[in-house]
Amino acid sequence: MLLTKAWELRSRYSYVDVLGEKEEAEQMLRDYFDNLNKRDFMLAYEKWDNNWKHRHSYDNFEAGYADVQNYLDYYVTSTLSSDNGVTLEGSITAEEGYPEQIYFYQFTYETKEIDGTWKIVSGKLKKLY
């Protein structure tokens, strides 16, 4: 009954995060960046949904992070999207290369709960400097 009421409320007022979707999606993204920092690329790769993984091999995903030494910090905001997902937007600072240099990125990730687990369904990462 409570879940039905929460869904009705959310359907009527899409800005209401009744069930904590934004917080769950944000936690999944924190875990994603933590996995990348630990160089546990397989766990990070598993944060993406299957449709994305069919188009992007694990080997290419891992190679894309070969020069990243550490994610220093990030900022994220979240909004509920019209398709019952959560849009995560923000910025991240990373140390890359040898010798290490600091770069600043802007990101947007679209996320959705799939079979009880939050997944990234699409994303854009743009290097600003």
Using the coordinates above, name the CATH class. Alpha Beta
Name the CATH architecture: Roll
Strand order, main sheet: write it out.
1-2-3-4
Whole-number mean pLDDT: 85
Q: Oligomerization state of this entry? A: single chain
- Whole-number radius of gyration? 16 Å
State the secondary-structure class.
alpha+beta
Q: Got a strand count?
A: 4
Number of domains: 1
- Series of secondary-structure elements, N-terminal to C-terminal: HHHHHEEEE
Helix content: 25-40%
Distance between the termini: 50 Å
Show unreliable segments. 1-17
What distinguishing features does this structure have?
alpha+beta; Nuclear Transport Factor 2, Chain: A; 5 helices; 129 residues; 4-stranded antiparallel sheet
Written overview of the protein:
The protein is built from 5 helices and 4 strands, in the order H-H-H-H-H-E-E-E-E. A 4-stranded antiparallel β-sheet has the order 1-2-3-4. It has one domain: Roll (Nuclear Transport Factor 2, Chain: A). The chain has about 130 residues and is an alpha+beta fold. About 35% of the residues lie in helices and about 40% in strands. Residues about 1-15 have low confidence and may be disordered. It has helices at about 1-10, 20-35, 40-45, 50-55, 60-65; strands spanning about 70-80, 85-95, 100-115, 115-125.
